[in-house]
Amino acid sequence: MAVVKVIGAGLAGTEAAWQLAQRGISVELYEMKPHKKSPAHHTDTFAELVCSNSLRGDKIENAVGLLKEELRRLGSLIITCADATRVEAGGCLAVDRQGFSDLVTEKIRNHPNITVIEGEVTQVPEGPVIVATGPLTSDTLSKSIGEYFGSDYLHFFDAAAPLVTADSIDMNEGWWQSRYDRGTPDYVNCAMNKEQYEAFVAELIAAEEAEVHGFEDKRVFEGCMPVEVMARRGIDTLRYGPLKPVGLVDPKTGKEPYAVVQLRQDNAAKSVFNLVGFQTHLKFGEQKRVFSMIPALRNAEFVRYGVMHQNTFLQSPKLLDKYYADRRNPLVAFAGQMTGVEGYVESAASGYLASVAMAAKVLGTEIPDFPKETAIGALGLYISDERIENFQPMNVNFSIIAPLEQRIRKKAEKNLAIANRSLAIIDTLVEQMRKV
């Protein structure tokens, strides 16, 4: 039996390697860390959550929550490790980032069918192979992929939010609460009045930005918009975005604040917090100056400032099929954000689907059919839809999943019905795959 190569040990790569190995296939997992790191890498472990954001909502009425539940039922390595290292964050699946990465690394390195090979891969190998090197693929391999396809990449930018220490947050100005009191009160809320907010926005717009080669506001992915770019769109843009006060009550006034910055715990010890929605590419000194204008963060200690990266992704609809494989060569597949799926969970899902299909090809069995009624299948169909003219990265959402035959007016009820239909299909697929 052929050995399957997997290039990259991020969320998509480790998921792919695990699924192949669990099916009895020998896997060579190539990872350039620790010998070489991208600007966003900070540790030597696998599946590093660079942006520190949680894995987002966990209720199946939410599309990413549905995707996680599908993966959970399918035996996903990423979701299993996320569940095991979960920290409280209201209705979200947030994890202790280092604990999560350590657990994924341990499971991968201890699997008898996986051989980890450290070092940079500079050429697209012959198949069977899954390339999952992420949006920060090294320049050398990126050039090789471009030559392999004979076409240009597309580019976009994403940004990571700053981290502050818990001890430096002024809790006389902040309070614990989840929006609408849903779940447990897992967010620290930092209120601003109208005067404070408007002064903050003015300074945010005027702050000096770090140079990022090729950066333009119009090329920033909407799902990872830098806070200063949002501020430039209008005085109230932030109040209707990451600083929206809806569903929150300031205990000092008993009223809804004018604007609220939310902080989310970034580790299990609750010693470090992430400024929710504060992706940025301001210079570090400017971040300290401007973000300290938030009353609860006047004396904040920043343990990491926000950073901005240029990300690279394929023109997938022209190149890949619904299983993330090269249409010309089904034994060469790609996975992760480089395919145009956006988000950690979506990356893991692409790694899962690419590897399950690759395993079937190698073993000579039928490829399981994940239809558009499932979140996993809908993502694969989205990135391979040749009708899309202006292809952009996409988070999973209910609009790409097949609609119901019957009409349900209430959004929550409709989403729940779609989710239950999807999970019934997934349960059937699980049983089918067990018999193979």
Structural summary, described in words:
- The protein has 436 residues and is an alpha/beta fold.
- Helices cover 32% and strands 15% of the residues.
- The strands form 4 sheets. It has a 6-stranded antiparallel sheet. Strands 5-2-1-6-15 form a 5-stranded parallel sheet, covered by helices on one side. A two-stranded antiparallel ribbon has the order 3-4.
- It is globular, with a radius of gyration of 22 Å.
Please supply descriptive tags for the structure shown above.
436 residues; alpha/beta; FAD/NAD(P)-binding domain; Elongation Factor Tu (Ef-tu), domain 3; 2 domains; 6-stranded antiparallel β-sheet; 5-stranded parallel β-sheet; 15 strands; 32% helix; 15% strand
Explain briefly what this protein structure is:
The chain contains twelve helices and 15 strands.
Tell me the layout of helices and strands:
Layout: E1 4-7, H1 11-22, E2 27-31, H2 63-73, H3 77-84, E3 86-87, E4 94-95, H4 97-110, E5 114-118, E6 129-131, H5 139-149, E7 154-160, E8 163-165, E9 174-176, E10 187-192, H6 194-206, H7 227-232, E11 259-265, E12 272-275, H8 284-291, E13 302-304, E14 307-313, H9 316-319, E15 332-334, H10 344-363, H11 375-383, H12 411-435
Helix pairs in contact: 1-10, 2-10, 2-12, 3-4, 10-11
